[in-house]
Design a protein that fits this description.
The structure holds 2 protein chains of 2 kinds. Chain A is mainly alpha-helical. Chain A contains 14 helices and no strands. Chain A has a domain at 92-267: Orthogonal Bundle (MetI-like fold), CATH 1.10.3720. By secondary structure, chain B is an all-alpha fold. In chain B, strands 1-2 form a two-stranded antiparallel sheet. The radius of gyration of chain B is 24 Å and the shape is elongated. Classes of the chains: A mainly alpha, B mainly alpha.
Amino acid sequence: MGGYVVKRLIQAIFLLKLVMIIVFLLLHMTGDPVTVMLDTDATLEDIARLKKLMGLDQPLWVQYSRFFMNALHGNFGESIEHGEPAMGLVLEHFPATIEMAVGAFAFAAIIGIPFGCLAAFKEGSVYDKSCIGVTVLIQAIPDFWLAIMFIMFFSVFLGVLPSYGRGGWSHFVMPAFVASTYHLARLARLMRSQMLEVMRQDYITTARSKGLNEKIILMVHALKNSAIPIVTVLGLDLGILLGGTVIIEVVFAWPGVGRLVVESISTRDFPVVQAAVFLLASGFVLINLAVDLLYAVLDPRISYS
Amino acid sequence: MTEETFGTPQTVFVEEIGEERQEERPWQKLLDSLYKDKSALFGVLILFGVVFAALLAPVLAPMNPHEQLLERALRPPLSTHGEHFFILGTDHLGRDYLSRLIYGARVSLMVGFFAVLLTGSIGLLIGLISGYFGGKIDFIFMRIVDLVLSFPFILLALATIAIVGPSLTDLILVMSMRIWVNYARVVRGEVLSLREQEFVQAARSIGSSHARILFFHILPNVLAPVIIIASLYLGRMIIIEAGLSFLGLGVPPPTPTWGGLLSEGKVHLYTAWWVVTLPGLAITVTVLGANLVGDWLRNVLDPRMKTL
């Protein structure tokens, strides 16, 4: 177990380093950041001077090692647009993104898991069939369109929920729920098929033949054993939600990292884009690591080699 | 498997009388199941309909989707202006909405189709090589897979498109960067078990080359999962394309795309319901069709892949 943890940790560190290289190269693909920063009437000398000042005349690996050292100290340069440190700006927007990701995650888990379980218990019933139908439909709906439809219904037609911004519960419910829908449906479907799979196992038959209460069989034996793949999917979902609610943030004008990235892209403010991609990718790597470790704890059959 | 060995009365009966049943072809199996599975039939019909509309857009569209006339802007569905009748109304520049929707199907389907084709081929090839040869090649490919999986995809796609500038080919390439991984992992897993099987060892013992074994013996056996994943991802691709277009990072205007129509319509949310409702409905129906077809193919070709 200890060896496995160390191995996964080393892997995660290696991944983070690769993430950094990609983030670094991303900026280089943009061409010359100097041309973005200077006015169009800047002379060639101006450009050369600024390049020297920023160290852009150095070979690529020198630039990378300096970028790497700076990034280790959380320094991704200054935002061209706002003049503040890029990482600071991203961190300011991070709580909003976490709030929405965790909210969407909670919606997906709290609604998706029970609905999937119920469908499995009542396999073949009208409830089961309509549950499958609804999840299939939900997975086909683009969430940003659903967001607009929700705004149209709840904000414009009924006028009960605010259509944009961040604030109290009323601001939070719509974006978080919309962001959760796809994951909710997938989780319900997975929970259902997982539950059906477990119910066919020998130990459930054994429990039944012992005359155990059906409720206890379902709640204790079946639910516990179908939890393992669900935990994996939940973990992956949280990671995806952290980096994937960009469009929802834009639609609801939610002041999170995703919206900041879209704004920074349109103003070509690449230090901010870099810092944001790095932060979210790191979060993603760490969540995956946590899921793998949790998985090893939950399922003793997993090999730690 | 169990069903075939025990044989329900019906299959026994068919096998007794049907000589042609002996050389059962996969597509025959597919067609048979299509009769029984209503939702699959529904999905196939939807997809056919959308493909048909996209291909015949110039014939089907009642008007030129680019023809603007500001004085007839934002007409509701079923309204007239001059000698024109607008079944689905007009947009903010007075363009016929039905025509724009029909033309919009072209971009969605094209991006979806080529992205699936590209990711499928790359993923298949890498999965084959990785699983068959193992060792260092496998290690390197699987680390690349880990790396791709550890990136928040939408962000990466946004950043890349913002840098290279939006165009149809770049859009397809960027979307493909992430999805090939899913094919590669599944194919690799299949190949790992296939390469130990007797028919592969037999081929090896009579001196077949690696390429021959890979493409003639192993490839046909991993095609089913690839087809399943492809059909299940077609819908996702269409949604991602629409999302990028919605953010202004898709195929640039004036080409009508469903995501682009939505983002143009978003501003008129308060006054014109049709310009925000209809494009999303078009996406939903198309993706629903694709997903139903995907579910059907999975159930028929390989019911093991339920968790996908």
